[in-house]
Known about the structure:
The chain is of the alpha/beta class and 279 residues long.
Amino acid sequence: MTVTETISETSAFAREARQNGRTIGFVPTMGALHEGHLTLVRRARKENDLVVVSIFVNPIQFNNPDDLKKYPRTLEKDLEMLKGAGCDLAFCPSVEEMYPDNHRKSYDFGDLARVMEGEFRPGHFDGVATVVQRLFEITHPHRAYFGEKDYQQLQIIRALVRNEHIDTEIVPCPISREDDGLARSSRNERLTPAMRKAAPYIHMVLEEARSLAANHTAPQIVNFVKAKFSDHPHLKLEYFTIAGGNTLQAVEGRISPGDYGFIAVFAGEIRLIDNIRLI
Ligand code: AMP
């Protein structure tokens, strides 16, 4: 496995691969890799001649400076895991390499970016789209792999590729979970033992919401979920929204096929997100 830190080495690798007629599968990450990331890498391995993974904690997508400072960084272990999963090139740039001009582009994703993570994390999706567009320019992948764990991000990236006429296929990958149902996340490492024990409750409540979907309206299920968190000792609900899987706009009445429940919860200072397809 090749490890690069510069844009020029990385784009040269990608250019040469393309010239030799080889397909590139790309997985952008912020490191602190876990089994969830590896499901994306293995899928990319199966579907492409070469696999490129980026590890870059993107400062401009963090709205909370403390979250950025405390984001786990485990580069040596990450590289070992990537080697084991069949990655060909790991691109690990510095902030200066990626942003010599400290520049965040401004995008118009319409209503997609105004709800949920867009509402509670101002500027977040501009930061995500800026880094992904830049990474796509550098690695010019045939396919790029994104987890449905960050479902709204996946839809934003699909919009980015459409709006900017980027010739990369976006491949969605299902949420990878721990045995107790908790969605795998780099932030789980920061949970205290008590919070870690409490956190599977989030997925459990989502499953209960799903079981209600056939014969309850969206507001009834939203109220049900809110009540489930109202006096929880460890978990504080930030939002629970039922929305169409494509539009991400809130559902007001009956649930239709393709509607999802989206949730953000604070476990102490750690913010966790998850989602579930309801019907
Ligand atoms: P991150 O390092 O958190 O930016 O995640 C990098 C990629 O891995 C994103 O496309 C995430 O959606 C995806 N990912 C992270 N956790 C999971 C998970 N538990 N299941 C599936 N994909 C995930």
